[in-house]
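User: Predict structure, ligand adenosine-5'-diphosphate.
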Amino acid sequence: MIVLKFGGTSVATAQRIKGVADIITSMNLRGNTGVVVSAFGGVTDELIRMSRLAAARDDEYIIVFRDIRDRHLKTVKELGLHHDKKLHHFLEETFSALHDILHGVYLVKELSLRTLDFLSGHGEVLSARIIASYFQSRKLTADYLDARTVIRTDETFGSARVDFSITNRNIREYFRKRRGVVVITGFVASTGMGEMTTLGRGGSDYTAAIVGAAIDAEEIQIWTDVDGVMTADPRKVRKAFSIRSMTYEEAMEMSHFGAKVIHPPTIQPALDKKIPLVIKNSFRPEHAGTYISIKPSDPEFLVKGISSIDKISLLTLQGSGMVGVAGISARLFNSLSLARINVILITQGSSEHTISFAVKPEDAILAKSKIEEAFALEIRAKLIERVRVENDLSIIAVIGENMRNTPGVSGRMFQSLGKNGISVVATAQGSSELNISTVIHRKDLDKALNSLHQALFLSDVKTLSVFLIGTGLIGSTLIRQISKHRQHLREARSLEIVVTGMANSKKMIFDADGLSLQKYKELLDSSSEKMDLESYIRKMHGMNLSQSIFVDCTSDERIAASYAHILSQSISIVTPNKVANSGSYAQYVKLRDEAKRRNVRFMYETNVGAGLPVINTLNDLLSSGDRILKIEAVLSGTLSFIFNNFLKGTSFSDIVMEAKRRGFTEPDPRTDLSGKDVARKLLILAREAGYKMELKDIDISQLLPASCLKAKSVNDFFTELKKNDGYFEQLRNKSSSKGKVLRYIAKLDRGKASISLEEVGQAHPFFNLSGSDNIISFTTERYHERPLVVKGPGAGAEVTAAGVFAEIISIGKYFE
Ligand code: ADP
Ligand code: ASP
Ligand code: MG
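Assistant: Predicted complex:
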C-alpha cells in the first residue's frame, strides 16, 4: 500500500489532472492506494482573499467567488464530466453552502478563524471530489474520502493539532473495507464537534503522512513541481539541484528552515513508522526525485542543503546583571512560551552578557513586552537593558549530517560570506551539528544563498559574473578572447566566466544567465534600455550575483568616478582605464580602502604598459621587502614607435603621420606628444611605489614647440609640425653624431618625477627598442648593479584585453 500526494500545481488544470491519472495508471498499483490532493493551484489563496473581502464588506468578494466557481465548472467540463449528475449536484450544494456562509460573513463583518477554516478548506473538498469522478471516468476503481470524516483535531483553527489515536483508528477502519484508489482531501480535518479545521498552509503533505502512517504504507510519495528537495530554493538559487537522498532529520531541518517543498510536520509521522518519503516531480515523472529515509546519505557533499527564513526579527537581552546568574534564560524562554511565541534560533555570547534570539516579525513586539515584563525589576535596577529589536533580517541555515565531525564547513561558509561583503549579524550551531544558522540582513539574502551554494556545492566550478562597459577596440577584443577560451577555462580551470551585463555609449543589456558573446552587437543595437550609468550600476547591484566583476573598457571620467561606489557594493573592478588611479591622491587611497573594507578586488595592471607585468612586478618587489630607488621607463607605445622609427632619411612629421595612420595615436596626436598620458602612468607607478603624489608634481618638459601646441585643428597641427621638421632633425643629428638615440623617458628618482626627451647611448637598456615597445627599469636596493627590466609590446588592443582577461581569471582564484 502506498500513499501519493499531489500538490496544487500538479492539479492546477484539467490537463495536469489528466497527467496525474496517467501517472497513477502507469504505476500499475495493486491493493489500496491513498491519493491525497491539494486544492487546484492558487485556489486556497483566492478563497482566503474572498473571505477577507467579504469581511471588509468589499463587494468584489462575489466576483472572486464566481471566478472560483467558474474555474471549477470549467475544469469539470474539460475533464469530460459534464454528464456526471452526482458530481454536479455535489458542486451545486457545496457552492451554495459556501455562498451562504460568505454572505453571513459579509453581513456581520466578521471573519473568525473557525469560519476562515471552513471557507479556505473547501478548495480540497472540491478538487478531491472532482478528481475522484475523473478517475472513475478513466475506469480506475476510485472512491472519494472527505478527510473531515477521519482526521480528528483540536480546535486550534488555522493550524489544528491532530488527535492520533482517534484519527488512526478511523483511517484504518475506513481502509479495511476498501479496494483500489481513494482520493482524499488534503489540508482539512474536523473537531470532535464536527467543525471543519485545517492543518496549516501547505498542510496537504501532512495529510498524506497521517494517512500513510495510519495504514503502515510502504511509501509516501509527495508529487510537486520540482525534482524533489533541492540543495536550495530554486526560485532563489538558479543553480540548485535535486538531492538524491536524505535522512528524516535533514529533511526536517530543511523544512523547518523554510524549504516549502515539504510542510514541516509531515516528517514526524513518517519517521515514527520509518516509512520512506519520496518527493517527485509530476511534470517529470521519470526523474527519481528525493528519497527520505533513516539511511544516512552517501557523503556526496559535506552539506545537504541550504534553507532560509526570509523574514525574522532578532531580539537581544543584555546587561551586566545576567552574568553568572542562573535561570535567566529559563525565565526568558518561559515568558515567550507562555505567550505562545515560537523561537526560531537562539545564540548566547560566551560571556553570558547577551542572549539573542530570532522570532517571526509579527511576534517581535509582543515578545519584547513579555520579556520586559518578566525582567521588570532588573530593568528598573539597570542590571538588564531594555530588549533590543532588530528587523529586516533573514536566517540562512546550512544543513547536513556529514558536517558532524567534519571541520571546515563553517570556515568555508563564513569565508564565502566575507568575500562577498555580507556581514553576519548572529550565528548559531545546533548541538546536533546538523545545522549551522546565520542571521544576515535581508537585503543580502539572495546573494548570500547563491554564494554559499557556490562555495558549498559548486566549489569545483566557480562562476564569475562580468559586467562590461565599453565595447570599443579593447572591449570587443576582450569579448572575443573570453568567447574563445571559455570552454578551456571551464574544463581545465573549473572556471565559468559569464558576461552578465554589457553597455556601449548608447545602450545596455543584462542577462543573469549570460549574454551571447556572438550576438552581443545585435542585442545591444536592438535593446530598449538606453545606457545610463546610474541605472547600469543599480541594475548590476540589483542582480546581486555572487562574484560580480565590473570591467571598464572606456577612458571615461564619469565611469571612473563611480568606482568607489561600485566597490562599496562588494563588486570587484578590473580596469584598463587609468583615469581613476591618476585622479586625486585622496581618491586613489579611497579606492584601495573601499576594496579592502568590502573584501573585493580592484585590479588595474593594464593601466601601465598594457599587458606587461609592471604593477605586479613593482608590488612583488615591495611586498618582498625591497625598496625602489629609481624607475625609468618608456611608457608610451605611441612615442616609442615614433622615436624608434625616427631614423635618418625620415622627417618627424612623416613619422607622426604614419603613427596616426596605423592607429597608434589618439585622434589628436598631441594627446600623446604632450606627455599627459605618460604622466598619468608615471603618477600611478609613483603612487604604487609609495609616494603621495599629484599629477601637478610631475615635471614634464615639452617635446613640441609652442606653435604646434597652439594650432587649432589637427590639420593645422600637422602643418605646424612640418614647419618644425628642421628642429627635430637637428635634435636627431646631434644625438646620432654621439652614437646616441632619442627616447622620451619618464623617470622617478628618489621621489622626484619627471618626463623629458633624452639621448641614450648603446650601453643604455633603452637603446634597443623596436615597434611600440614599452620598457620599465626598476633600480632597487636588491637590483642595484643591474636594474630589473620589463620590456615588451606596451600598447594594442590584443595585449591590453589579454591583461584584463588575466586579471578577471585571477579573481576566480581569489574566490577559491
Ligand atoms: P505543492 O503545491 O506541490 O505543495 P509547494 O509550492 O508547496 O508545492 O512546494 C514546492 C515549491 O517549494 C517549489 O516549487 C519550490 O519553489 C519551493 N522550494 C523552496 N525550497 C525548496 C527546496 N529546497 N527544494 C525544492 N523546492 C523548494
Ligand atoms: N491548499 C493548501 C494550501 O495552499 C494546502 C496545500 O496545498 O498543501 O496551503
Ligand atoms: Mg506544499
